[in-house]
């Protein structure tokens, strides 16, 4: 009994407990196997990180290296075709822009060539000629030298005496420019006022066919005193000595068949002994 008890005590001693809990060799091999697996996994992660750091170009080159020759050829020709399409599109876009520009130029040239052109000839005195103390009228002839009819033509005509202030020739010229600008501004205002209402301007409108003509005169005559008449008749190089003159001004507005608007400005002056002597003003003779 005593020996049996001692045996049971020996079986529960600390040394025996350590031996009973010691890992088996197989377990150590398994644990060592697990360690080897962990090391392989870490190596795989490191290689992936290195590849990520190589950049897209290196990855693409590596992938391309692994592709078969047929796939490489298809990719190359696809790239070439795409590049050719881009270049062709760029060239075609440039050609379209040039064609549109050429079309606008052609349209503008056609409009310029086919549009109506209204011009005014130098006027002449009417109803008694040029004399003091009598009503003076001047008549101008408007001709359409264009290739299409001038439609809805409106004319503003005035005959006015011009007596500039005494001074140098430059002073007289500047006074003449101010005078002309004021007259044309009044004519423009008259046209705008009439065209606001079609019924008001309709009686004053007319059409002129190509090579057709139309006579106009100043609706309100003027009268010169003897002194004014002599100032206008005084002559120096074909121009009144004092700068005095009679000025015939015409503003013509009209349209073509396509609705394009045009205008003609005309200005003539008379000074000297000859009643037939009318000359172009130095400005405000424009066809627009």
Q: Explain this structure to me?
A:
- The chain is α+β, with helices and mostly antiparallel strands and 288 residues long.
- The chain folds into three domains: 2-61; 67-114; 118-287.
- Helix content is 50%, strand content 21%.
- The chain has eight helices and ten strands.
- The protein has helices at residues 2-11, 14-21, 25-53, 56-66, 69-114, 169-195, 198-201, 226-233; strands spanning 118-120, 124-126, 137-144, 150-162, 206-208, 213-217, 245-255, 261-270, 278-280, 286-287.
- Strands 4, 5, 7, 8, 9 and 10 form a six-stranded antiparallel beta sheet that branches. Strands 1, 2, 3 and 6 form a four-stranded antiparallel beta sheet that branches.
- It is elongated.
- The model is unreliable at 1-40 and 236-241 (pLDDT under 50).
Chart the SSEs and their pairings:
Elements: H1 2-11, H2 14-21, H3 25-53, H4 56-66, H5 69-114, E1 118-120, E2 124-126, E3 137-144, E4 150-162, H6 169-195, H7 198-201, E5 206-208, E6 213-217, H8 226-233, E7 245-255, E8 261-270, E9 278-280, E10 286-287
Low-confidence stretches: 1-40, 236-241
Helical content stands at: 40-55%
Distance between the first and last residues' Cα = 143 Å
| Class computed from helices, strands and strand pairing | alpha+beta
Into which percentage range does the β-strand content fall?
A: 15-25%
Number of domains: 3
Mean pLDDT, rounded to whole units? 75
Query: N-to-C SSE series?
Result: HHHHHEEEEHHEEHEEEE
Gyration radius over CA: 52 Å
Count the beta strands: 10
- Overall 3D shape: elongated
Helical run tally: 8
Largest sheet: 6 strands, antiparallel
């Amino acid at each position: 009994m005593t020996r049996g008890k001692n045996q049971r005590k020996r079986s529960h001693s600390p040394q025996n407990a350590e031996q009973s809990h010691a890992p088996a060799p197989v377990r150590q091999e398994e644990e060592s196997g697990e360690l080897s697996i962990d090391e392989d996994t870490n190596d795989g992660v490191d290689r992936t990180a290195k590849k990520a750091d190589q950049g897209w170009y290196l990855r693409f080159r590596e992938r391309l290296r692994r592709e078969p020759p047929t796939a490489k050829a298809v990719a190359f020709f696809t790239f070439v075709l795409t590049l050719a399409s881009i270049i062709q599109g760029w060239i075609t876009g440039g050609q379209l822009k040039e064609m549109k520009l050429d079309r606008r130029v052609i349209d503008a040239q056609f409009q310029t060539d086919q549009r109506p052109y209204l011009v005014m000839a130098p006027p002449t005195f009417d109803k008694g000629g040029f004399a003091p103390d009598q009503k003076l009228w001047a008549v101008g002839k408007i001709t359409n030298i264009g290739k299409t009819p001038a439609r809805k033509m409106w004319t503003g005509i005035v005959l006015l005496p011009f007596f500039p202030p005494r001074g140098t020739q430059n002073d007289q010229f500047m006074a003449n420019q101010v005078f002309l600008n004021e007259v044309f501004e009044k004519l423009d205002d008259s046209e705008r006022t009439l065209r606001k209402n079609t019924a008001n301007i309709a009686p004053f409108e007319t059409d002129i066919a190509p090579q057709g003509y139309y006579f106009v005169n100043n609706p309100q005559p003027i009268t010169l005193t003897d002194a004014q008449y002599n100032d206008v008749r005084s002559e120096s190089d074909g121009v009144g000595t004092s700068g005095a003159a009679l000025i015939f001004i015409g503003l013509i507005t009209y349209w073509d068949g396509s609705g394009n608007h045009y205008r003609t400005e005309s200005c003539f002056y008379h000074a000297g002994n000859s009643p037939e002597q009318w000359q172009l003003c130095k400005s405000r003779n424009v066809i627009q």
